[in-house]
């Protein structure tokens, strides 16, 4: 990713459009999975926006990450409805099962756990969304047991793919 | 004959896509020719996945909680006259009443139409309001109609919509913007998501009418990134509207131009505040600024800008078609019309309910929401998100309108209602909201940046059982200072008022 070729069409389209910094960062994160220091510097050069300002924006919004993430991003909803229905216990179960806390990635690089404000599926609380290249999958009415089963199933599926 | 399966985010989360795939497979296996379509959120989320089968005479049978393994039974019984319908998954009379007790204006099409097909919206009278406005009404007429309706902003502040539109209309300048705030940031609220996913054209039509009323030729929808399905359906809807000539240059030969685009938010609660939202639209950190100047005179790129919430816009076509007076006839004297609430938490029948303003909390929670899960004792209901408040059981007969809810120290807010039962710890809830506000503080003002952290420490101590009386006065002093903060997001931190 050193020559940032993938970013060229994005910068071509938005690079000179005022107010497009967030859009550029979103596209860059879609491509590389996170915003590295090098990516930020490259965008700064290409757009003429100061790296400090880009860093300021990138660290302001919850969506942007400065560290690489695992293949599956677990977005654990911590909205009010989920909190009332025991989201903390579900998070504990994930931490226990995978050995990672909020913001961390498993050693095998498969899962990253991220707490998020609200996924808007409040009537199914507690809820989590698993984001990956395969698409976004939302799971509702979680219990300690179902969340572990879901994670095991993903891990299993992933190992099978690797074996093939 | 057709089969329609509810596929909003909540439906999909309960497996609606797998159910839909199973129906398609079985229809194929049985060599039948029945289309399987989709619709948005029906509102009764606790019954998802919901399957509607329309017979040739348009008679509807609604099946609920349909998982793939249930499909064979339903197909066998529904399509062979001898067996009778599979009653185990048929919706019960009690559950039908949940919808019948509501008055649906904003959600008029949600759960009925395919949100990805503009012709279904048009078939139910869609874009007629836009045609009427562009061919028969002046901007002043539109604003007058809004004034008659008494519609107030549904995003939380409850400011009269006509007043904001009029301020933007009369503000000097040729370049104006119409912005939709779809950054539904209150945790526990999902009304806007359902409209975006279930009836995106009603928002687009409302924005075109609003744009015409204030003289804006450009519109932006600021939608939160946590709603990928909503963004997708909006994109599809905008493309279809463009093809029909409802967006772009010279809309339906009226001479009025209106361009619309989506800007995906990047996750910051404070961006629900309008000046922060504008900063975010401009690619900056989403930090609020002091008002005045108000966005109506200096907003997006310093141009006159009007910002309304999704639900507010979705009301607009209905008001134009049915008249402001019909809208004003619903609700109470000062809080007109209907309001959508998101019922969640310890409630039996969680989902979206739309009722006339002025209905009591008891009616909403018990008559429509079915009461408390596991028949436990009702303790409180949290309204208005982190800027709102917890309403205790003693006030359950309070009518829900801007005035009455404001009087008891909470706010109607955007419409989230999180029900709590006897097992919910209120000290923990206060800690939860302070944790939330601390994380989401934009950091601009020290009242909030430091204050929320100090106050959170106090509540953490309390929860640990090591809280001291002396610190409570310290906490109160911070609370007072926090209310001096210029930002409207935190000026009423009700949940931590005590």
Question: Can you put this structure into words, describing what you see?
Answer:
The complex is a heterodimer of chains A (164) and B (498). Chain A is an alpha+beta fold. Chain A has helices spanning 8-14, 21-32, 37-47, 51-60, 80-84, 87-98, 144-163, and strands at residues 72-77, 111-116, 128-132, 135-139. In chain A, strands 2-1-3-4 form a 4-stranded mixed sheet, covered by helices on one side. In chain A, strand 3 (128-132) and strand 4 form a beta hairpin. The longest helix of chain A has 20 residues, at 144-163. With 498 residues, chain B is of the alpha/beta class. Chain B contains 19 helices and 13 strands. In chain B, the strands form 3 sheets. Chain B has a 5-stranded mixed sheet with strand order 10-9-13-11-12, covered by helices on one side. In chain B, strand 3 and strand 4 form a beta hairpin. The radius of gyration of chain B is 23 Å and the shape is globular. At the A-B interface, helix 2, helix 4, helix 5 and strand 4 of A face helix 1, strand 9, strand 13 and helix 17 of B.
């Amino acid at each position: 990713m050193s020559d940032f070729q993938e970013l060229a069409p994005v910068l071509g389209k938005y690079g000179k459009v005022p107010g497009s910094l967030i859009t550029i960062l979103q596209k860059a994160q879609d491509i590389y999975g996170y915003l590295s220091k090098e990516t930020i510097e490259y965008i700064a050069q290409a757009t003429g926006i100061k790296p400090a300002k880009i860093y300021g924006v990138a660290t302001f919004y919850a969506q942007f990450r400065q560290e690489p993430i695992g293949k599956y991003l677990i977005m654990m909803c911590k909205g009010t409805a989920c909190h009332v229905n025991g989201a903390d216990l579900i998070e504990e179960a994930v931490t226990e099962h995978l050995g990672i806390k909020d913001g961390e990635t498993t050693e095998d690089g498969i899962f990253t756990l991220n707490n998020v404000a609200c996924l808007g599926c409040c009537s199914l609380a507690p809820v989590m969304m698993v984001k990956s290249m395969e698409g976004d999958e939302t799971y509702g009415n979680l219990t300690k047991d179902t969340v572990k089963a879901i994670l095991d199933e993903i891990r299993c599926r992933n190992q099978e793919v690797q074996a093939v | 004959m057709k089969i329609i399966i509810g596929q909003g985010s909540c439906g999909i989360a309960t497996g609606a896509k797998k159910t839909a795939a199973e129906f398609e497979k079985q229809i194929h296996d049985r060599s039948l020719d029945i289309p399987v379509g989709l619709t948005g959120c029906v509102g009764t989320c606790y019954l998802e996945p919901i399957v509607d089968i329309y017979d040739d005479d348009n008679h509807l049978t609604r099946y609920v909680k349909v998982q793939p393994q249930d499909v064979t039974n339903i197909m066998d019984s529904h399509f062979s006259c001898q067996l009778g319908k599979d009653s185990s998954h048929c919706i019960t009379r009690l559950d039908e009443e949940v919808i019948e007790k509501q008055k649906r204006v904003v959600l008029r099409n949600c759960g009925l139409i395919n949100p990805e097909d503009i012709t279904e919206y048009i078939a139910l009278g869609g874009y007629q309001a836009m045609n009427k406005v562009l061919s028969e009404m002046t901007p002043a007429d539109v604003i007058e109609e809004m004034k008659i309706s008494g519609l107030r902003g549904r995003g939380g502040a409850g400011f009269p919509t006509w007043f904001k539109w009029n301020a933007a209309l009369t503000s000097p300048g040729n370049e104006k913007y119409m912005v939709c705030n779809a950054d539904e940031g209150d945790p526990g609220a999902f009304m806007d998501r359902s409209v975006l996913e279930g009836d995106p054209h009603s928002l687009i039509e409302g924005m075109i009418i609003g744009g015409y009323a204030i003289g804006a030729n450009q519109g932006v929808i600021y939608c939160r990134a946590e709603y990928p399905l909503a963004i997708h359906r909006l994109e599809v809807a905008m493309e279809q509207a463009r093809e029909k000539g409802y967006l772009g240059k010279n809309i339906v030969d009226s001479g009025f131009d209106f361009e619309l685009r989506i800007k995906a938010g990047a996750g910051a609660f404070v961006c629900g505040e309008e000046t922060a939202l504008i900063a975010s639209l401009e690619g900056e950190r989403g930090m609020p600024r002091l008002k005045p100047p108000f966005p109506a005179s200096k907003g997006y790129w310093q141009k006159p800008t009007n910002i309304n919430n999704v639900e507010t816009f979705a009301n607009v076509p209905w008001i134009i078609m049915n008249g402001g007076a019909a809208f004003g006839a619903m609700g109470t004297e000062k809080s007109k019309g209907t309001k959508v609430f998101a019922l969640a938490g310890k409630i039996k029948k969680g989902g979206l309910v739309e009722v006339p303003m002025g209905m009591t909390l008891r009616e909403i929670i018990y008559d429509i929401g079915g009461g408390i899960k596991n028949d436990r004792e009702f303790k409180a209901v949290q309204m208005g998100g982190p800027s709102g408040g917890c309403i205790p059981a003693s006030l359950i007969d309070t009518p829900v309108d801007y005035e009455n809810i404001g009087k008891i120290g909470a706010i109607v807010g955007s419409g989230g209602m999180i029900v709590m039962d006897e097992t919910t710890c209120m000290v923990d809830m206060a800690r939860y909201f302070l944790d939330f506000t601390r994380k989401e503080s934009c950091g601009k003002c020290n009242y909030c940046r430091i204050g929320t952290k100090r106050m959170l420490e106090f509540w953490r101590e309390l929860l640990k059982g090591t809280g001291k009386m002396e610190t409570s006065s310290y906490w109160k002093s911070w609370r007072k200072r926090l209310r001096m903060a210029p930002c409207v997001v935190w000026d009423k931190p009700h949940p931590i008022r005590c």
